[in-house]
């Protein structure tokens, strides 16, 4: 079956960095768009960054210039490098596999907690 497994979350001070990873199995990774989403307490889940099969990227305005999404098709893994973290970045981060960024994801990971202290 299709599995998306995130790792790399944790507690970091404001201004620090974290790198999230999402390993995908059970589906052809390279032809799919991948997205990173986050959900903070009491808020809706939102798209943070996405990367297409052709490696085009898109970012939420709140993270532009601080976060970078990338993919390694040989490892079936997508990454989210997060620099300059702020307390408002605190959320559960999910990776997702989808056909297009404009469409709802077909598969989700279990999520990884990112907490940024001030």
Describe this structure in words.
By secondary structure, the protein is an all-beta fold. It is 0% helix and 52% strand. It contains no helices and 11 strands. The protein has strands spanning 3-7, 10-13, 18-25, 33-39, 46-51, 57-59, 67-72, 77-82, 91-98, 107-108, 112-117. Strands 2, 4, 5, 6, 9, 10 and 11 form a 7-stranded mixed sheet that branches. A 4-stranded antiparallel sheet has the order 1-3-8-7, with no helix packed on it. It is globular. The model has no long low-confidence stretch (mean pLDDT 96).
Topology diagram in text:
Layout: E1 3-7, E2 10-13, E3 18-25, E4 33-39, E5 46-51, E6 57-59, E7 67-72, E8 77-82, E9 91-98, E10 107-108, E11 112-117
Parallel strand pairs: 2-11
Antiparallel strand pairs: 1-3, 3-8, 4-5, 4-9, 5-6, 7-8, 9-10, 9-11
Output the keywords.
four-stranded antiparallel β-sheet, mainly beta
Secondary structure class reads mainly beta
Q: What profile does the largest beta sheet have?
A: 7 strands, mixed
Secondary-structure element string? EEEEEEEEEEE
Overall 3D form: globular
> How many E strands?
11
Measured as a percent range, the helix fraction is under 10%
- Terminal Cα separation, in Å? 40 Å
Number of helices: 0
Low-confidence stretches: none
- Nearest-integer average pLDDT: 96
Gyration radius, in Å: 13 Å
Q: How much beta, percentage-wise?
A: over 45%
Task: Explain briefly what this protein structure is.
This protein has 118 residues and is mainly β. The chain has strands at residues 3-7, 10-13, 18-25, 33-39, 46-51, 57-59, 67-72, 77-82, 91-98, 107-108, 112-117. Helix content is 0%, strand content 52%.
């Amino acid at each position: 079956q299709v599995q998306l497994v995130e790792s790399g979350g944790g507690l970091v001070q404001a201004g620090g960095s974290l790198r999230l990873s999402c390993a995908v199995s059970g589906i052809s990774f390279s032809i799919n768009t991948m997205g990173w989403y986050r959900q903070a307490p009491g808020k809706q889940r939102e798209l943070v960054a996405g990367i297409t099969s052709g490696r085009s990227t898109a970012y939420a305005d709140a993270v532009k210039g601080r976060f970078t999404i990338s993919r390694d098709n040989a490892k079936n893994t997508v990454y989210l490098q997060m620099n300059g973290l702020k307390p408002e970045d605190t959320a559960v981060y999910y990776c997702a596999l989808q056909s297009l960024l404009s469409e709802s994801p077909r598969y989700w990971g279990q999520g990884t907690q990112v907490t940024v202290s001030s």
